[in-house]
Amino acid sequence: MTEGGVRQLRLVVEAEDFEAALAFYRDVLGMPQQEAYSGDDGAEVVILDAGRATLELSNPAQVRFIDRVEAEGQPSDRLRVALEVGDAVTVTARLVDAGAELIAEARETPWRSMNSRLRGPAALQLTLFEELD
Q: What residues does the VOC domain cover (predicted)?
């Protein structure tokens, strides 16, 4: 990496119900808290560890293909957060029990992963994926 290169990808999400979103992503999904800061007028931010970060760029044809495979053609939001988990079926059920909206049940994809799609707190569209190889 060059001196001026990217060192970290941080997705910043405004959560109207901050406490509910924090409980969901930290406590239910299991993303460890790294840092937390408070400011004036009730300002709060918590930084959660999401493991390794990547930026996946897809053209519209690829997005349509993923949507067909992963969610019966239901369109992705412009930004969708994909999280690798150890057991997509179990974690999907746990997140639905915690209030996530199920968009598509976990299913095996042509690229050998088990993927599900949900809508979590802070209106984030989520793909959970488990690598099968």
A: 7-131
Check if the beta carbon of residue 36 is closer than 8 Å to that of residue 47: yes
- Token readout for 100 is 């996530």
Question: According to the model, what pLDDT value does residue 3 have?
Answer: 76
Within 10 angstroms of residue 26's Cβ, the number of other Cβ atoms is 15
Domain ranges of the chain: 18-131
**Second-level CATH architecture of 18-131:** Roll (3.10)
- In the numeric block, the tokens 């239910």 are attached to 28
Regions in the chain scoring below 50 on pLDDT:
none
Q: How many angstroms separate the CA atoms of 91 and 72, rounded?
A: 20
Question: Cα–Cα distance between 53 and 31 in angstroms, integer?
Answer: 13
pTM of the model: 0.91
